[in-house]
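Page 37, top half.
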Amino acid sequence: MNTDKESFAGKCVLVTGGAGFIGSHLVDKLMMSKGVVRVFDNLSSGNKENIVRWLNSRGFEFRKGDLLNKKDTEKAVENCEVVFHLAANPEVRLSSVEPDVHFDQNVVATYNLLEAVRKHGAAKSFVFTSSSTVYGEASQIPTPEDYAPLEPISVYGASKLASEALVMAYANTYGFDAVIYRLANIIGPRSRHGVIFDFIGKLRYNPCELEILGDGTQAKSYLYIDDCVGAMLFSYARSNRRVEVFNLGSEDQVDVTSIARIVIEEMGLKNVSFRFTGGVFGGGGWKGDVKYMLLAVDRLKSLGWKPKLNSVEAVRKTAKSTIEELG
């Protein structure tokens, strides 16, 4: 373990996107570890309610700002030893109709942040949340970190891969450590996008019929948020190379039709009919949708980590919490 990274106590830590789903759960853990946490978020997809418990706490600072604004970004990085870069547009489907959104909010935003760190920051470590979508339709399942070639099939996946390359180049050129996480589908409380949230919304509108994008056989890995944040902090403390890349997901898959059945059960509904859209490119939900995804997490497991919940357990727990949150 890298003892310099073992504790956040007294360190200034910047979390971009810290009012978002994953970011706010990370903030919870950092605040409980006595870090000095600065959240930088434009609240486009994040919600201040996610961090309301910390707003008046000692050692916590919230700054509303946008990574596309260079001056705001430069001020945000000042005096921060560790940067967790989670800010991004999370809607993969959007990239098929508005690719400029993902280019700006993922690639340009990451570049601006890295430039701010280079010019004005004191950061020794830069942590970036990438995505399983960088692999595209991988021929090797489970897919390891050294899989090649990386051929994303969505602009979202391409924007994450481009951002990874920028992070790697800046770390090697300007002398700070970087940890990159290629995330599976992360789910849990506070999430307001993705298949579970969409299904609940559709069933509230029409409890008799559920539209399912694609052919329903799409199967992917789902990881509960507590497992995700725990793995990030656990492996960050144990990273010793200039640049580390970790897959982060569960060790199994669940298909979309099974997720639909779980949501229906948790909502207490009966006799719901399914209407499949048929999908594109062999049954995917939309252009750019990777139909089958399962990440190899051997690298993380070799450090001593493994997920507490499998995909089905994570989906059921998330369905319950989301239904409760929506009231």
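Page 37, bottom half:
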Amino acid sequence: MVKANLTIEHQFICLTDKPNLHKIEGITFKAAPISIADSWCKLSLFTPQLAKAYGGTAFYLDLDVVITGKLDGLIKNAKLDKLNIIKDWWREGNNSSIMIWNMEKFWHLYTSFKPSCMKELKGDQDLINLKMEPSEIRNFGEVEIQSYKANKLESDFNKHTKIVVFHGKPKPHEVDGWVKDYWK
């Protein structure tokens, strides 16, 4: 989906705990720089090691998203002095399913993580919401990125929407209709 919708030169890197498990042309599989359980592993995106290895702009996507439009504008319009992130549809704060940022910034999201956070908070999104100042956040537009459930997209989606997020149930592979045309 990314390849079909992004013309900006890019590298596709999948951070995983099993880097030798998959071989897919055009995707580099790398061991995640840290090993943290569940959604907490997303904090490894903010390590200085990744910034030194790759640098530049990072564009992160959860696996349970469907790309429905061209992504170049989303990236070109990102404010790289901020963490570009989704405003959560269901609760106060942000949803980390999609993020764009300068890899030289926001290392404090990784360094502030302690194992005790896993008992005190629900996941990476809670830590991001706790540790980021409002001035460091830029939310994507409400049409650019939508929620399959919250925006009730069972039958169709806005033609200006670039990405549809499938948080919770159902997942894209469990849905018929328009999703089948985009989920590849």
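Margin note: DSSP finds seven helices and nine strands in the chain.
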